[in-house]
Amino acid sequence: MRLISRLSLISATLIATLASLSAFAEEVAVATSTATAAPVVNPGDSAWMMISTALVLFMTPGLAFFYGGMVRTKNVVATLMQSLIALPVISLVWFVVGYSLAFGPTHGGWIGGFDWAFMNGVGGAPNADYAGTIPHDLFMTFQCMFAVITPALISGAFAERMKFKAYLLFIVLWSLLVYSPLAHWVWGVGGMLRTQGALDFAGGLVVHLSAGTSALAAALAIGPRVDFKKVTTTPANMALVVLGTGMLWFGWFGFNAGSAVGSNELASVVFTNSHFATAAAATVWMALEWYHRGKPSVMGVCIAMVVGLIAITPAGGFVTINSSLLIGALAGAASYIVATLRSRSSVDDTLDVFACHGVAGTLGVLMTGVCASKAVNAAGADGGMALFLIQLKAAGIVAGFCFAMTFAIIRVIDLLVGVRPSEEEETEGLDSTQHGEALSG
Fold it and tell me: What is the pTM of this model?
């Protein structure tokens, strides 16, 4: 009996010990799991995203050269200024409230609200909803560069005919009333287009389609230049256009590949797709222009390079390299055709922003619906009729919203401060009348 009693006691002790060890193991597992799940800054990802942010910033002065070289000599300085001034002004708007409206906690899927205004709660710790391996404030700054360049893109549509104070008011209002809500719809957690399955890797909807349709609305609301189709216009400096194109192509690697939000395999795919889509668009445009007009132009090739970059922007992280070549080629052809038709119309979109950003951006969004593959990006979707219809719906909503809002903003600004300079000032040129400067000194 004593032996049985002792064995029972030993068994009970062993069972209790094993239970304690099991409970301890579970606590360790939970603690380990929790530590693993917590966002941790990855130095490699952070380094790549700081580089990407600088690359996207570099695109805005690149746009200034690109646009500045295309206009007439009397308007070069004013055109440079319109792109350049977006950097400081929109950066401050983004800091104060723009980022919070775009990416802050959602309010019904429509807008982010004021939770993160003045960067409240946005610091060095990662935000797992958007970028779990880089500081939250770095993600905010990266997105700031997108917010900066988008309204600057629109300026090409009304180049040579908008007062500077009207332009400043326009980019602030457009950033707050159009860009931030749109970015929330497409990229914000809980955003209404994101929850419906719309795909936009780096800004086909948010940046290019929005800028293109807004440019068309602005051109129509403001009206043509006083000498539109009455005089022959000559670009001020093709060297500036080439320089700007090179800066844009270079910076676009950060724009597109940086949207992978890490130094990883997906970023490499996007990097490669961006390059070869651009090559396809430029080659197709050059061939069409050579056949149609008898000579290939440097201006045409530069525009086509930008068109290719635009078209691959929404698709770059969802498609294969073969699909990127197709998307670039189709965009080169489509934008060339629309630009040619526009030149024969009464619409004065000075630098063909709609034909480039509107058309190529729309094509890229729709072709994402056709060519996307989860084999490229498991977070995306497979192309087909269902995804194509989602993309088509998203493109229609974005185009309609941006067109209507931009037209209304221009009309309101015209009532407040007047949009256009006088005919005499416009004829003299905006460099001297708006800034008291000239290209040569």
Answer: 0.90
